[in-house]
Write a structure and sequence with these properties.
This protein has 248 residues and is an alpha+beta fold. The protein folds into two domains: 146 residues, Orthogonal Bundle (Cyclin A, domain 1); 96 residues, SH3 type barrels, CATH 2.30.30.50. Helix content is 30%, strand content 12%. It is built from seven helices and seven strands, in the order H-H-H-H-H-H-H-E-E-E-E-E-E-E. Strands 6-5-3-2-7 form a five-stranded antiparallel sheet, with no helix packed on it. A two-stranded antiparallel ribbon has the order 1-4. It is globular.
């Protein structure tokens, strides 16, 4: 994956200034709501845990959409754009690009509406819908309450055990990865083997997708960063899919 997933090993970036408010601008609430509705109406939910009768929901959204797709859209951005844009602007870009790629809207239509909004945002802003299809509303509420669990039965016993020393593989990340790049080649200790197996939303080129064990690993900060950047006696923890790990 591109630069933005490998920041753990870089110095000289601007300081992080966490925002106190979850939503800074009113439009950010809409983007969050759109993303949530897309997850709640995704066509994969008939095979999820818990099971949803998604075929019986009268929605025109017939695509596959998860948190993973949202992340993949952000990671596909040019790194300079990724750093320049605000958090929900990245969401907006990923969701907009997805709707274009799936044929719900054309790039020309999106560009035209964007131009209208930039010219006069108050005039171009669409009103919030009032009411709606009850079955769709019920599905979104059900999804918010019950979610979509990534846990599955273990297909095979975990390869690694508590206290074992392991090394992070130097895998090629391709378009999407859940492995922080600065951990590649580093040695860690297994401090927890999570119960069950965890699937990912879709297969990736570097090996996740099928159900597999996940481990909590403890790294020595001095193996990751310069001594001037770490706190004494500190430990760095990260949860890692089994496919990214090998024995020392």
């Amino acid at each position: 994956m591109k630069l933005q997933h490998n920041l753990g090993g870089l110095e000289g970036l601007d300081p992080i200034t966490p925002e106190i408010e979850v939503f800074v601008e009113p439009w950010e609430k809409r983007i969050f709501g759109i993303h949530t509705a897309m997850m709640a109406l995704s066509n994969h939910l008939d095979e999820s845990i818990p099971d949803y009768d998604i075929e019986g929901v009268p929605t025109t959204f017939k695509s596959f959409w998860t948190w993973g797709h949202l992340r993949m859209g952000a990671e596909g951005m040019h790194p300079f754009e990724y750093f320049r844009l605000r958090y929900y602007e990245k969401w907006l870009g990923g969701i907009s690009g997805f709707f274009v790629s799936e044929g719900y809207i054309t790039q020309e239509e999106l560009d035209a509406r964007t131009a209208e909004f930039l010219e006069d945002s108050e005039k171009a802003e669409a009103p919030l819908p009032s009411g709606g299809e009850k079955a769709i509303d019920d599905q979104v509420v059900k999804y918010l309450r019950e979610g979509d669990s990534p846990m599955r039965p273990l297909p095979a016993p975990p390869k690694f055990s508590l206290g074992e020393r392991v090394r992070i593989k130097n895998v090629f990340p391709a378009a999407h990865s859940r492995l922080p790049g600065n951990l590649k080649g580093c040695v860690a200790e297994v401090v927890k083997v999570y119960e069950g197996a965890f699937t990912y939303f879709f297969p990736t080129a570097d090996g996740i997708g099928v159900p597999m064990p996940v481990y909590s690993l403890a790294f020595k900060p001095e193996d990751l960063w310069d001594e001037s950047l770490i706190e004494p006696q500190s430990i760095y923890y990260n949860d890692i899919f089994e496919v990214y790990i090998e024995a020392v």
